[in-house]
Each structure stands twice: as structure tokens, then as C-alpha cells.
């Protein structure tokens, strides 16, 4: 845990918050009838900057978010580039396809619902 916890600078915390918000929106809107589980990552404590008590995800979204958080924390670049602009794709191909779908859906959802502050992180940076 300590190896990954040492990398939780402000930018990585912000990236994890954004990723969590996007996956949460996608799961809530697309997997309404699926059984939900509380989200947690065994390798690092995210509760210091995320309210995990209300984050409930279906098993597939849970796996995707866990994969994304671990990849964000293990990124070798400093400063960390945006994943979509990175030359080294560390996401497994299946997860890379899924995360693109999640980002596209959730970004459009946020724009349609007036949440440009969160969508701006994805589209403008």
C-alpha cells in the first residue's frame, strides 16, 4: 500500500476523482438493474479525498475503476500526461475500449446536465 500511496499528489487525486465520477455516472445510468457493490481498492486508501461510502458500482464497473485507479497510481511519467494523449498505453486493450466508452458517455451526460466544470477536465486538458 505504501508504494502506491506515496504517489497521491494533488493531480493524481484530481484524476482519480474525475475517473471515479465518470465511471459512477456511466454505471448509474447504464446498469440500473445490476447488483451494486461498495467500491474499494486494496492497494491504497482513497477515503481521504473520496467519499467511498456512497459509491456503489456493478461488478464490471468496479473492475474497470479498480484497473483505472491502479494504472493512474502506477504511471511512470512525471508529470503524468492525460491517458488519451499518452504514447504508452498501460490500460489492457479491453479496459482501454471500455474506458473510452465510459468517458464519451459520461462527458456527454455532464454537458447535457450542465456540469461543464467536470466535463472540462476531460475535454479541455
Summary keywords:
2 strands, single chain, 125 residues, two-stranded antiparallel sheet, 5 helices, mainly alpha
Provide a short characterization of the protein structure:
The chain has 125 residues and is mainly alpha-helical. Helix content is 55%, strand content 3%. The chain has helices at 2-5, 10-30, 59-73, 93-112, 116-124, and strands spanning 37-38, 56-57.
Structure description:
- The chain is mainly alpha-helical.
- Helices cover 55% and strands 3% of the residues.
- The protein contains five helices and two strands.
- The chain has helices at residues 2-5, 10-30, 59-73, 93-112, 116-124, and strands at 37-38, 56-57.
- It has a two-stranded antiparallel ribbon with strand order 1-2.
- The protein is globular.
- The relative contact order is 0.17.
- The model has no long low-confidence stretch (mean pLDDT 82).
Topology:
Blueprint: H1 2-5, H2 10-30, E1 37-38, E2 56-57, H3 59-73, H4 93-112, H5 116-124
Antiparallel strand pairs: 1-2
Helix pairs in contact: 2-3, 2-4, 4-5
Strand count, sense and barrel status of the largest sheet are: 2 strands, antiparallel
Number of beta-strand segments? 2
CA-atom Rg in angstroms: 14 Å
> What is the SS-derived class?
mainly alpha
Which stretches of 5+ consecutive residues score pLDDT under 50?
none
| Total helical segments | 5
Shape descriptor = globular
Strand content: under 5%
Q: Estimate percent helicity.
A: 55-70%
Q: How many structural units, i.e. domains?
A: 1
**H and E order:** HHEEHHH
